[in-house]
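Researcher: Let's try something more involved. This one mixes different molecule types, so please make sure each is placed in the same coordinate frame as the others.
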Amino acid sequence: MLPKAKLWLVLTGIATSLLSANLQAAWDLNMTQGVTQISRDTYDLHMQILWWCVAIGVVVFGVMLWSIINHRKSKGAVAATFHESTKVEIAWTIIPFVILILMAVPATRVLTEAYDATESEIDIQVTGYQWRWEYTYIRENTDEEEVSFYSILSTPREQINNQMEKDETYLLDVDNPMVIPINTKVRFLLTSNDVIHAWWVPDFAVKRDAVPGFINETWAIVEEPGIYRGQCAELCGIEHGFMPVVVHAVEREEYDAWYAAKQDEARVAREMANNVVTLSESLEAGEQIYTTTCIACHQPNGTGLPPAFPALAGSSVVTGDLEANINLLINGVPGTAMAAYGRQLSPVQLAAVVTYIRNSFGNTTGDLVQPAAVNTLIHAAQ
Amino acid sequence: MSASHDDHHHGPAKGLSRWLYTTNHKDIGTLYLWFSFAMFLLGGTFAMVIRAELFQPGLQLVEPNFFNQMTTMHGLIMVFGAVMPAFVGLANWLVPMMIGAPDMALPRMNNWSFWILPFAFAMLTATLFMDAGAPNFGWTFYAPLSTTYAPSTVTFFIFAVHIMGASSIMGSINIIATILNMRAPGMTLMKMPLFVWTWLITAYLLIAVMPVLAGVVTMMLFDIHFGTSFFNAAGGGDPVLFQHVFWFFGHPEVYIMILPAFGVVSAIIPTFARKRLFGYDSMVYATASIAFLSFIVWAHHMFTVGMPLAGELFFMYATMLIAVPTGVKVFNWVATMFRGSMTFETPMLFAIAFVVLFTMGGFTGLMLAITPADFQYHDTYFVVAHFHYVLVPGSIFSIMAATYYWLPKWTGHMYDERLGKLHFWLSFIGVNVLFFPQHFLGLAGMPRRIPDYALQFADFNWISSIGGFLFGASQLILLVVVIKCIKGGKKATAQVWEGAQGLEWTLDSPAPYHTFTTPPDPKLIHAQ
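Model: All components are placed in one shared frame. Result:
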């Protein structure tokens, strides 16, 4: 019989996959214990409630199964006539209530602890964008060079489109991870520039929404060095599945060295805004930025997804007035998905990507945009 | 009622006009049920697209934008098009027969509340064929993704929701008016079948929250078209306000989709256990308690939104409390089965599966109530598994149980028991293979609403998809069973089921077009 064959197919499927799942890391089946005190407490809480549920389930389903087996008409069972008992009703109202109190006590303790974000040593502002994270390390004083950068999915499009073998960290890798020191209380200040996102690192038991117009706070003290991966957890548009969170937790000295190097990098970038670039340099850099930043909406060949996401190929903006084109990238188009990239990309990057789109997809303006020109327009806009 | 309607005694009109102009509760119930089944297949097709894309890592079949349209439309169609109209259809068919009334209290409004529904869903579904594409912001349509950043078709979505809301409110008014005014002499409130009780309470929930939903979509409409900033932070608005208003509707909505299911199961289990329902009074009180609690737990959907500690604690405790009356219900069903004399026809199989699998969804609901743990579960497949357990083997299994249980009364024929059992077992296996592995996916860290996933999620995803295809395909059996049963089959007796109690079983099978035009003999009304 066909249905029976189907059934066996499914059962064998389950058995095989359960076996293969056993061969993989243990956290495939259960919540991670993580690397912070809060994440371990959360795991314990999760397991405690789970075992309560299992115990209640065994009793309730046990009685039910026993009745199903024994109290069937085919076995000659005759129905009893009892149909109410106030005592029993009171008992099975009060007992679950007591169990709930037993659950609520540790839950309240862990929650209170998780909400105490005071006395942090390092504060990092996390800003969500469609579809990237920006990490800004809050400075002690504004004379210091600011460390602030975007963190974007680095999995190649070819892997997503099945034209290339997927590597181990498929969809969970970024170009610039957040770096934090271990054994240090780090506070994350979350907000968003557009829609609501949620910043989640399972190993820290940290998940908090990044809401435009609000600043939420949460924190972690990571105890083990390592690379911790998570994802955006709140639906934030087309590329919601493609904005991972990666945090490197390192020893304090390593962190200090990294921080200093990032400050140097920022200094160089600021100075580079005055450099003169060549067309070939610009096209190469521009293509890279296009691939990480623009491609989701405007598509690999610049055809867009009209009408929400207009085509760049042959577009009157991209082939028209250069200054208007640059300004559009700087300020975005209010009320549409086109964000203001004046703050998200550096003048060097903006110049490169404008040069790229004006000389690709069949557009042949021949324009070469210099970072200094973009810089002037950004300042004019402010 | 009105004596001027002579044609009442001639039975239904012929042809299409019977269905267009009908004010008969049985006809309208039938319309609702068929409409709901059509929407179930449509929403199910969207689910199949989702599961097919998630069968393997990588993007194979659809673009991420279309994937988001599928998840959004699947949710909207299943909630507003499949589950809710199915319960309204059951209420139409059953409430008058159960309380000994000749029809619904407001028959013309009844016609209207059904016939605006197809227009609402035609408008919603039409967006799939528009340039901007269908709504792609999830069925919870959080602002500003659904306002500033939404496709232009969001306006069609807003008007569709308005029409669905109007339909639900009219349906609820009708049900309340019927139950409170048209009970046969002797049918006191505490003698009403639980299905009638649960629907009475559900109808009040609907009247309380559908206007809130209408309010929130109207605020969206103003933000999108008239320059207000209710939900736009840049204009001084508050995106979190959207969530509070939405979930103030959304949480009672969850119970709107499960309370009538409790009523169905409370009718079926005593019938096949041949034993009176245990703890009738406590069942009524538990239902009312759940309905009350449903208004003060909404923010447990928003634990990660950044509420103050006191708010988090309040909503955690209030949510945990729901376990108490829900537990009472489950214990009462088990106590009804205990020392009964059980047989296991298809309705009973679905009802038992309901009790077990709904309870499992209840357990994960309790886990989700624990705020610190929810930080890990929130917006992952653990949540997807949770609400599908309470909605599919919960609400939808109860609708199927009801269909098998009352089908002989509706059609006058017994359905094909062998096919019914096949449908049950394939659905039961399919639904568990589909949703159980999703608990693991969520705990392992897979967020919901993503079209593609990291490699460690691959195994459970293909298993889940196989289960999905099996479950989806099995539903066609139900269609075959119902059509076969309408066309013919063994004649059903009035009693149909040996252990069945209630006024509807005193009527012939099929139930005549007009029933209880004179009140039933009060001696026929027993305590439940």
